[in-house]
Amino acid sequence: PTFSVSEIKNKQRRHFMFLRWKQQQRKEKLALKKKRRKEREALGDKAPPKAVPKTIENQRVYDETTVDPNDEEVAFDEATDEFAPYFNRQTVPKILITTSDRPRGRTVRFCEQLATVIPNSHVYYRRGLALKRIIPQCIARDFTDLIVINEDRKIPNGLVLSHLPDGPTAHFRMSSVRLRKEIKRKGKEPTEHVPEVILNNFTTRLGHSIGRMLAALFPHDPQFIGRQVATFHNQRDYIFFRFHRYIFKSEKKVGIQELGPRFTLKLRSLQKGTFDSKFGEYEWIHKRREMDTSRRKFHL
Amino acid sequence: SPQVVWSMLGNRQFCSYKMTTKTQNFCRNEYNLTGLCNRSSCPLANSQYATVREEKGRCYLYMKTIERAAFPRRLWERVLLSKNYEKALEEIDENLIYWPRFIRHKCKQRFTKITQYLIRIRKLTLKRQRKLVPLRRKIERRENRREEKALIAAQLDNAIEKELLERLKQDTYGDIYNFPIHAFDKALQQQDAESESESDAEREEDDDDEDVDKREFVEAEDSELSDFEDMDKLETSSEEEQEEEEEVEKKASHSKSKGKTPLKGPARRKRPYIEIEYEEETEPSTKTKAA
């Protein structure tokens, strides 16, 4: 006939009773665990397999646009979309990196570092030019991609990636940007070798197209001598970018050393044509009210 | 009469349009010509008054006369001014003919200022407008937290390492790294000649990046082939100065066959320089394989 702990008016006594209750709960839990372990050992081989813990990735709401590796329709689409010339090795990527107006020091340094990471890229200052006007100029000068890094309060916080000859435009929110000197490592700067590209976890159709877009930034033939790898890892709709140097210590062990900047991207919108905020045709926009309702639903 | 009004509102009593600051008094009345609270620019204290105001990009001249002082609805007479700057100035002049100089002058000044800012507005709308999108604190916090959790769930280092090892297994690197797989190794060990050179190569790889175990014995026993592969490893590793220590797995498994004992470091380092003589022949071929 115990009263519930919350009915005790005296705070000290209530606190004491609560601690006691907590200890009791812990003891019970431990006892239960021990019992289960004993049963398991007692059964030996006949024991049922261990239960897999539920993770968000396990419980992910099944997305009907998940790409099946053998899907012909997807393969056909990809053979005819805007990245086909890149994947057929007809075009060499040439990237233009720029910022919003009046970039501050951090953004400028980040742009420079990004330019060292992505081969064949050039940084130009914006100086108040309208994007719609630079785009035809870029196309005329044979650029394949345009990256605009948006800045707010002296830190970069947005990225617009536009595939130039009439390709899709993706707008990302960029967060946790770390410059090279902020990364704790002992290595040197990235060399001029073409890095390899790793794209992890891009499962849906949308994720697939974004993955292709990101892969199209890098030249097709990586130089393995350089031993550098750029990784775009998608986890729960956040794309983590890392740049490492690897070395194979043996066939089962590889050591990686992080160099280069790191940042995370979250896709906000994907537009079909080049950058056009008013009249563009949006293929996908992140709508908070509709898409953020479930914790286990992801779109990339 | 206006003097009475002024003596009441201007100095002594309360005027709701009056705004005082440390240095000046302003008048918030929309019909005020100069914006200051003065005897000559108060629309309430002057029975004959005029202003210029703009609405939707067009300028109007507003006039107030004594005759209409009893009819508040008809008090302010409105005249549309032409869009042409000089013509509008003439229109002001002809409408305010015989009016006090002060009001005429101030009206024209105000009109000039208004046209100037209208021009600026039109120019600015053509340029790029910066759209300010407010951040929502709760959403920002939520997204940051989710990002942290996603980062932890991602286990990036492991994922990258796994992917690299996968690529190694699937032979995307070709012949740059000579890591034959364990099973293959063991199969080879049964065959004499091949197994020796293979294990030599592996041991050499481990040797390259290690500063610790060197074998004098190896030098004498080395075949030419292993030397070339050694050179390859040296070339690739010397390009980047890395301070990582290498593991000795392979060595452990194969050292028994050769019975090598670890010796001092510098003794091994001599090896590369000796081997350079042998490298010319197969050097280009190994390099092309790597490419």
From TrEMBL, chain A:
Residues 93-276 form the Brix domain. Keywords: Ribosome biogenesis, rRNA processing. GO terms for molecular function: rRNA primary transcript binding. Its main location: nucleus. Residues 29-52 are annotated as: Disordered. The keyword rRNA processing applies. GO terms for biological process: maturation of 5.8S rRNA; maturation of LSU-rRNA. It is found in: Nucleus, Nucleolus. GO terms for cellular component: nucleolus; preribosome, large subunit precursor. Residues 39-48 have a biased composition (Basic and acidic residues). InterPro entries: Brix, IMP4/RPF1. The keyword rRNA processing applies. Pfam families: Brix. PANTHER family: RIBOSOME PRODUCTION FACTOR 1, U3 SMALL NUCLEOLAR RIBONUCLEOPROTEIN PROTEIN IMP4. May be required for ribosome biogenesis. This is Ribosome production factor 1. It comes from Urocynchramus pylzowi. The lineage of its organism: Eukaryota, Metazoa, Chordata, Craniata, Vertebrata.
TrEMBL record, chain B:
It is found in: Nucleus, Nucleolus. Pfam families: Mak16, Ribosomal_L28e. Residues 253-271 have a biased composition (Basic residues). One of its GO terms (biological process) is maturation of LSU-rRNA. The keyword Thylakoid does not apply. Coiled coil: none annotated. Keywords: Nucleus. Residues 193-211, 219-230, 237-247 have a biased composition (Acidic residues). Belongs to the MAK16 family. This is MAK16 protein. It comes from Urocynchramus pylzowi.
